[in-house]
Structures are given as structure tokens and as C-alpha cells.
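Hi support team,

I'm opening this ticket because the web form for multi-chain structure prediction keeps timing out on my end. I have pasted the exact lines I submitted so you can reproduce it. The total is 534 residues across two entries, so I didn't expect it to be a heavy job. Is there a limit I'm missing, or should I split the entries? Thanks in advance, R.K.
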Amino acid sequence: MPAIHYLRIWLACVRYSLVRMMMFRADFIMWSLVEVFWVMVNLMLIGVIYRHTDSIAGWGPYEMLLLFGTSRLLQGMLMGFFWSSLFEMGRNIRTGQFDFTLAQPGNPLFMAATRKLDMDSLVNVIASAGIVIYAVHKLGLHPGALDLALYAALLGSGLVIHFAALLLITSATFWLIGTQGIEGSYFTLFDFARLPREAFRGVASLFFVYGLPAVIASNIPASALLHGFNPGHALWLALTAAGWLALAIFVFNRGLKRYSSASS
Amino acid sequence: MRTAFHKYRHVFLVGVQSNLVYRWNFAIRATFSLFHLIAAVTLWRAAFAGQTDIGGFSLAETLTYFVTLMVLQFFIGAFNEDYQVSEEIRNGLINQFLLKPVNYFAYRFTLFVSARTISGLLVLVPLALAMPFLHEYLTLPSDPWRLWMGLPALAMSAVIQFGIAFCFGLLSFWFLEIQSFVILSFAVETVLGGQVFPLDLLPAGLFRISQFLPYYYQMYFPAAILTGRIATPAEAAVGLGIQACWVVALLGLIHVLWTRGLRRHTAVGG
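Hello R.K., no limit was hit. The queue was backed up. Here is the completed structure from your submission:
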């Protein structure tokens, strides 16, 4: 199927999600409040810690704010564009309703991963972008158009890592039918994304920086804004994103072969 | 009294059995909690670099607080009791309790106690496995008063945790969907219950206000008694008094919501 058709399908999904949001306006407002409140909770944590210290692993308060905003941007985009669809995919595999997705004329992963958009999470993206802009302003940084484009490209690579991790976790449902709520483990693993890379030492650094890519997914884009573009780091991030995505697609396809549908 | 004890003893035993079915879910959840703990250790260790104390407490004391919170969460925290109550109201399953000589609150609370007994014991397994890495960071005060004041604080915290969840569940008499209320409340409880940072690190005025809110007594208060963040028995006694007031207030609120909710409730079917 040509790419233009997939774009049309995706736009139809965007329209459907917008209509659904307008139907449940109160729900949208409530969930948006929830998202904003969670951002405030994390801002409070940063505020409280920096009341008592000047630096966390060499990062000052506004640098930390920039890192936090970047990690929330990534999570907000993942939640907004993919979370509901992948969460539903896990549930549908368990109940056998995944047949419906497989019967659609298109790539199963595309159809499963892009069906629903969460508009309230996209509100979170706007709030997070606001935090990044505020931090950049307070730090006295003046990024040019190229810097912003590179930051966006690095964010894109980070988003691929988040997506791949969530797809891997959700694909486990093909094998672990009884493990309901396994998708929540994504939040546990990506809790590390808001921490500076320099805070990890020894074995923890090996595991959480080089093994689990949550830390570099947020740290490398934030560092690019703070200290300028580093081609070595960008390559590291891009290769990690490509590797994790390839692994996630491989596991998803292996799971598809295992899926036996709900037909009786 | 004796009949009631036997009745709820059976509920407790059934609850233990049904929760043992989900032992792997609890074990996985407990293991993932260790990741949260690692994130907390990493953050606070970095924050303590170059200084011996933050807010008057050492790194070891601060990390002991977070480890204690993690364990308490599995012993007294409300997990999904709000959703269970909500489901029973929305699906009409609650009707059977209206016809039987069973107090629904007592029934649900007994199930909560059985579930936390199992999850609390299960969290000790990953904790024991992590102890070789954690023990150098742990330091618990040995004053005996902390134990005999901490235990009632823990018991009342469990009632407050469950009571708040039960109240949200009862909202299903009025609202079809309570998830957004629950998540919003969870966010408030997480920060004001001291799970994001020890509440004593807040500015003095805000900390004082937090001491009059129920969230303070959900988790922070017993953890603060046990880990030394509350310094004197007198301070703990005042806290126990306020905590008891919140227990009474919550039980009163539950009674009001239950009786008013039942007036709106319609049982259909035979």
C-alpha cells in the first residue's frame, strides 16, 4: 500500500479521535487536568530538591528543568500518538479481538499502533514544550533554527526508542496472556528518563545508560540544546533507536505468528 | 460479636486464597517497585553529593525513608479497591450484599486486609534479594516508642488509605466513570503523602498545612515515626490525635455516601 494511503488512514484516525474528544468534553478537560497536575508534581520535586542543593550530578535547576521538560515531551508524544492504541492491542490479543485489526487491509503494526490518539496527552506535550521554552529562556540560551531542527530530530529518535520499548512490552502479551497491566512497566522503566546521565555510576551506568536507553533518549536532546550538537551522541542515539525498533518489530512479528485468534 | 468475627474470618480466608492466585502479579509489581527505588536512590545520591545532610537528614536516613515507604505501600496501601467497589456498584453485584446480613464496608475492608497481608509478605522477597545492595544505605532508629506509636499509626493509615479508595468507589452511585477522579486523587496523594519527597523538605508553612490534611497520615506519618523524621513522642502523639480525627471523619463520610448512594441505586433483575 503506498505511503499516501497510510497517511489518509492516519488522518482519518486523527479526525475520529478529535470527534471522540468533542463528544466527551468533560472527560477531556478532566484528563488534561490530571496530566497538568502530574507535571506540577514533578516540578515540585525539582523545586524541593533545589531548595536544599545547587546541583544534581552537575545539572543546575534550570538545566534539570530542561531535561525534565524533554523527558515529558517524549512521554507526552508517546502517550498522545501511540499509548491508547498499543494498550488496546494488548487487551485485544488477550480477548481475541485482535482479529479485527488483522483483517484490515494494511500493515498490522501500523493499523494496531495508530488507531487512537489521546488528545489530553497532547495537551501535556504543549505544557512540556512550555517548560522547555521557559528553561531555555532562564538559562539565557538562544538556539537558532538549525539547533531547534536538530533538537527535534533527536527528539524523534528518542520517541522511536520509547515506542519500541512500549511495543516490546505490549508484544509480550502474545506469550504472557495472564499478565494484565504489564504495559504499566513502561512507566517504571522510563522513570529514569528524567535523571541526568552523570547521576548513574558503576554498574548502574552500564545498565541504565548503555543497556536501557531511557536515559539517553532524553539526555542527548537536552544536552544538544544546552551544550550544542554532538555528532557522536546523535549517532549513538540514532543507532540505538534503529536497533531497538528493529528488535521490537521482530518480536511483534514473531508474536503475530504465535497468535491463534479467538475464532472457535 | 462472635458470629460477626466468624463471618469476616471466612471472608478473610477467602480473600487470602483469591489473592494467592495473583501472587505473581504482586511479585512482579514488587520487583518493578525496586526500579522506582533505584531511581530514587540515584536521584538523592546525586543531590547529596558534596553535602552531608539535606533538611537535617543524611543520605542513609533519606533512603531508609524511601525503602520504608515502598514496604509500607505493599502492607497498607490501597491498590485498586476503588475500582472494585465501583465495578460492583455499576454491574449490580452490590445487590447481593443488600439482601444479606453483611456489612459491605466491613466485607470490603476484610478483603483489603487479606490482600495487603499477601502483598506485604510478597514484597519482602525482592526486598531480601536487594538487601545486599541496600543495607549500607539503611539506618533505622532503635527507640522503642517508635514501634508502639508506629503500629497504631500504621493501622489508622490503612483505614485512611482504604477509606479514601472506598469513598471514590462509592462515587459510582453518581458517576458512570470514576477513573479520572481516582487518577487525580492519586496524584494528590502521591505528593502530599510524601511519596515523591519527604514532606519535611517542604517550606515550613506548606509543611504545617500538609499536617492537617488526611494525605499526610496516609503514608508519610507512620514512615516518619519509624524512620526518625518525627523526633519526639509528643510530636507523634499530636499526629496520632489528628490521624484519629481523620479516621472518624472518613468513616462518617463513608456512612453519608453509602446511605445517600443507596437512595439513588436501582437494583434490577431477579
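A quick check on our side: The interface with chain B takes residues 27, 30-31, 33-34, 37-38, 41-42, 44-45, 48-49, 51-53, 55-57, 178-182, 184-185, 188-189, 191-192, 195-196, 198-200, 204, 208 of chain A (CB under 8 Å). Let us know if the file doesn't open in your viewer.
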